[in-house]
Design a protein that fits this description.
The chain is mostly helical. About 10% of the residues are buried. The model has no long low-confidence stretch (mean pLDDT about 85).
């Protein structure tokens, strides 16, 4: 097998492994704590709460901002009071994926 085909095969196998691993529902870290419960309750209004390691902290900041904007566009007000937003972002920061 030529080198480029080997690399393509390896990339395909890696992609399939990542997809398969992401299909397994992992429990949320500290799931019984008030910050985790708040995160679950607020974020599952529209969709299941994603595992904190789905993004790094910068990514979560962007996601929360986008979700607030979308909720506002749908007339869901107040979607996330500032004190709750701070708790949720703190929880996500503590448990977010590290790095990129």
């Amino acid at each position: 097998m030529e080198q480029s085909k080997k690399l393509a095969y390896l990339a395909l196998c890696l992609a399939l492994s990542i997809i398969a691993a992401s299909c397994v529902k992992q429990p949320l870290p500290e799931a019984e704590t008030p910050p985790a419960i708040l995160y679950i309750n607020r974020c599952s209004i529209c969709h299941p709460a994603y595992h904190p390691q789905a993004h790094n902290y910068t990514g979560w900041n962007n996601v929360v901002t986008r979700m607030e904007r979308q909720a506002d566009e749908k007339g869901i007000r107040p979607f996330l009071p500032e004190d709750e937003k701070a708790v949720i972002l703190s929880y996500l920061k503590k448990n977010a994926r590290k790095g990129f």
